[in-house]
Input
Amino acid sequence: MELKTFKKGGIHPEENKLSVSAPIESLAPPAIVSIPISQHIGAPSKPLVKKGDEVKVGTPIAEMSSFISAFIHSSVSGTVSKIDDVVDSSGLRKQAIIIKTDGDTWEKSIDRSPELKKNFTLDASEIIEKVKKAGIVGLGGATFPSYVKLMVPKGKKAFAVVINGVECEPYLTSDHRIMLEKTDEILVGVSLIMKATNLKKAIIGIENNKPDAISIMRTKAKNFEGIEILPLKVMYPQGAEKQLIQAVTGKEVPAGGLPIDVGAVIFNVGTAFAIYEAVQKKKPLVERVVTVTGKAIPKPSNLLCRIGTPVANLLEQAGGSLENAGKIINGGPMMGKALVTPDVPITKGTSGILVMPKELATRKKESPCIRCAKCVTVCPMVLEPYLLSRLGRKYLWERFEVEKGMNCFECGSCSFTCPANIPLLDYIRVGKTEVGRIIRSRK
Amino acid sequence: MSKELLTISLSPHIKGEETTPQIMYGVAIALLPALIVSIIFFGLGAIKVTLFAVAFCLLFEFLIQKFIMKVESSIGDGSALITGLLLAFNLPSNFPIWMLLIGALAAMAIGKLSFGGLGNNPFNPALVGRVFLLICFPVQMTSWPLPKLFSFSSLDSVTGATALGVAKEAIKQGQSIAHIKTLIPGNLDLFLGQAGGSLGEVSALALILGGLYMLYKKIITWHIPVSFIGTVIIFTGILWAINCEQYMSPLFHLLTGGLMLGAIFMATDMVTSPMTKKGQLIFGVGCGLLTVIIRIFGAYPEGVSFAILLMNAVVPLINILSKPKPFGTN
Amino acid sequence: MGSLLLNSILLLGSVGLVAASVLFFVAKKFYVYENPKIDEVDDVLPSANCGGCGFPGCRAFAEATVGATDLEELFCPVGGNETMKAVAKILGLEVVEKGPMVAVLRCNGSNENSPKKINYDGVSSCLSAHSMYAGEGGCPFGCLKLDDCVRVCDFDALKMDAKTGLPVVDEKKCTACGACVDICPRNIYELRPIGKQSKRVYVACLNTEKGAIAKKNCAVACIGCNKCVKVYDSGGAVVMKGLLSYISPQVDVENQGGYLVGSCPTNAIMGINVEAKKLPPKKKPSKPKEKES
Output
C-alpha cells in the first residue's frame, strides 16, 4: 500500500539520526538556571517571585499575563538570585528569572514514582485546568499554550485528534525516543486529550523511518480505545501542522486558518507525554527531552534536562567541545535557530541542540538563478519562492503580499533545494517581517 | 585572535547536494549518445564542428565577461559548454569554421550575455545562434552532407537536402506521397540517424536515450517533451487523416528534422521554459503547434527552432497564467 | 510601375490620414486641463525622483507646490534653497529657507571599537540580519555593517569603509533625501544641519542598555553618565533619554562643542571638525547664543 503523505512539495534530506539508539538520560540539575519569562507564543508571563525567595522544583514562579500565555515553574530547588535581562539566542536581552540551585527538593504534591497511572475520572474542564496550571505549551517547537488548543471554540466542530509523531527534521530523535520509552504514558496522554476535547478518535502519524516506534505504539494502542497509528511516507516538512493534517486526514487547512477549521486538534507526542505527567502525576513542565547531536558531537544523546539549563552543560554531557564547533543550532537543521553563545538556557521549545562542525557551518557561494523551478516544486505551501525572494530583495512589499508570501512558514525546503545556493528563505523572511509590520500597522 | 568564532546564519543549516554545474554537466552527458552517432555518420566533420563550437562559446563567454561586463567569469558552470554543444548539434557537419565563429558570437553575446548572463536570457542562446546563422548563411545552413558510415577519410562528402526539405519541395511540385517515399530514407534509418541533417538531430534513438537519462537524473520533467511531441503527432495526424495524399504521416514528422533535439534538449532549457508543470504543458503544446504550422504552411521546411524561440518570448506570460494555487486556497 | 507608385502613395497616405484624424479627435475629447505652472516647476526641480520631499517623485512634488498656499511644509532637500527660490518665484510665494542638512551615522561601533564576537554568514541585508540577531559586535542598537543604506542611496554619497566596517557619508554628495534614514532597520541615521564650516557635534550611540552592558559590547558606547548634560546648560539642547544622551541639532557647536566632545569618558560624542577641549575647572560655561544661523 502506498503510504500517505501531504500532496504538494516536500523534500527528503539526509536523515542523520545519529542519536537514535541512545536511551534518554537524565541530566543533573545545573548550579544556576535562568528561566526566561517568554518561552511561548503570546504574552510574556508575569513573575511571581522576587529576589531571595526560596523555591522548590515545581513551584510556580511566573503566571499567565493574558489569555494566550503560560505558567512557568521553577525547575530546580534553591533561591531566586535575581530577575534580570539575560542574553537570549539572538544576542538580545530578555527578562529571565535566575535561580541558584541548592539540593533537589520537589514540591510535595508531585508524584515522582515511575508507575503508570492509566485510569482517570476527571472531566474535560478539570483536565484543561490542570494542563493550564502545569504551564504546558506545544513541545514540538511552536510553543503555543496547549490549554487553548484543548478548548474547541464554539461553533467549530472537531472530528479527530491528530498526534504528531513525525519528527521530520533530520538529526532530531527526542520524540522518537519518547515514543519508544514512554509509549503507555503517551497513549494515556492522548486519551486525556480526547477526553478534554470530547473526541472519540485520535490518529498518531509516525514517519516510516521509525519502524520500531510504529510497531510498539501499534501493539500498545490496542489497549486504548479510538487510537490509531498511521505510518507515513518520509517527507519533510511533514511535521508542520497543516502538512500533517493533510497527510493524515486529506483535508487542506485554509490559508491563514487554523487546524480546527477542518476539524482537527493537533498535538505533538512530547506534549501528550507532558499532559500525562501534568494530569496524572501532577508534575508541571519543568524538564524536557532534548536531543544533543551533530557531527561535531562525540556522543550524540537524548537528555532529559531541566528548563533553564545552559546549552553548554548539555554539550559537556554529550562530550562536545567548542573547539571544533562551527555553529550551534537550537532545534533541527532545517528550521532551527543558530545561537550566538552556548550560555543561553534550554527553554520549553528546545527539541534539540545541533552542533555543526566547522566545515559544514558555512554556506556555499551563491550563483545566478537558472529558473529551474525546483523551489516551486518543493514548496509545501505551493508558493513561488524564487519570485518571493526577488520581491523581498527589491523591497516590493505590496506585490509580496499579493503573491501570498505571508503563507510561507519558513520550512527552508526552497533554500535547501536551490542548485544555485541562493538563500531564498533569507529574503522571503525579510519580506515577511516587513509585510507583517505593514499589515499590523493597517489595523 | 585566540578563539575561533562561531558562525550564525538563518535556517536552513543544511543544503542539498545538487548544484548548477551538476545539472549542466548532466545535460552534457545526456548529449553524448547523439554526439557519438553523429561522429559515426559524419566522421571528422562532426568532431571538428563540435570542438570549435564549444571552444568558441567558452572563449566568448570568458572574453565578454572579463573585458566588457567586468564580472567574475563563470565558464566553469557548464552553461557555455551546453550552448556550444547544442549550437554544433544544429549545424551541418561541413559548416565553415569562420561562420561558426560568428554563430558562437551571436549565441553568447546576443543570446545570453547581453541580457546579463546565465539565468537572465529570455531566449535559448544556442537557438539564437542557429537562427542568426540560418538567416545570414541560408545556403551553407541548408546543404547537408549525406551520412556515410565511418567516413573518416574524406571531408568532402556528398551534400543534399534533409528529408523534410525533400518532402516539402516535392509536395510543392505536386508529386505523390508514394513517389516522395522513394526519395527519402526509410523510417528505421531516420530513427537510427542515417539521414541527412544537422549533426545532433539525425538520430531519434540517441536523443531519446539522452532524454531518459535526464529524466532519471531529474534534470527535466516529462511535461515539455511529451506535450511538444504529442501535439506534433496529433496535429499532423489530423492533417494526415484528412488527406494522406497531401500530408506526410505523423511518424515522418516525428523522426525527421530537429523535433527530438528541440523537444528534449532545447525546449526543456530551464532558463527559458516556464516555472510550473501547468505552464510547461502550455509551452510544449504551443511549441508543437507552431512547429507543425511552419513545417506545413510556412516557407521553411523546418520550424522547431522558430517555434521554440517564439514560445520563449511568451514564457513570462505563461508564468503569469499558470501560477500555482497556494496551499489552502482550494 | 507608375500605378504601383501611385497606389502605394494613395494607400499609405489614406492610412496616415485616418490615423491622424483619430488621434486628433481623441486628443480633443480626452483633453485634461493641467496647470502649466506644474511643468514650469517640474523643470526647475532636480529630477532625481528620490522621494526625499515625501512625494513619489518630482512631478508629484511640483503638483503639490502648485496647489499649496505657502511653502512652509514643502521643501526639496536635493535642490536646496536655490531650487526652492526658483519654485517660489514661479508661484509667487514666499520662500522658506532651510539650512542644508546631512545624514549622520549615529554609531561608531567600528570593527575596532566593537570587535566581532561571531561570524555572520548570511545575505548582505540589514533587514535580514536585524530580524535574526543583535549583530556581530553584540550591540542590539548598533550598525549591522551590511550595506542596505549604500544600496538605497541614489546620490552615491555612501560608501562602506572596509577598515571600520561602517558606512561613511560623503558630505558633499549627500542631499539629505532621507532614503538611508528610512531603510535602516535600527534608525541609526539622523538628518542634521550641516553646520557652520561643517562643524557638527552629536552622540554617536543609540544604546539604551545599562552602562556596563553597553560598554562590554562597544568601547565607545554611551553609558549614560550624565557628564555631557552637566557641561551644557542650554535648557534642552543636551538631554538624557533614559540611559542615553542626546545632543539636539540646536546645540551651540561654536562655543560648547569642544567641551562636549571632551567631556565624554567613552568618546561616544563625535565632533566633526571640532576639537575636544577639557572644561576649565569650576568655571560655568557662558550662556549659549540664541541659535546658530
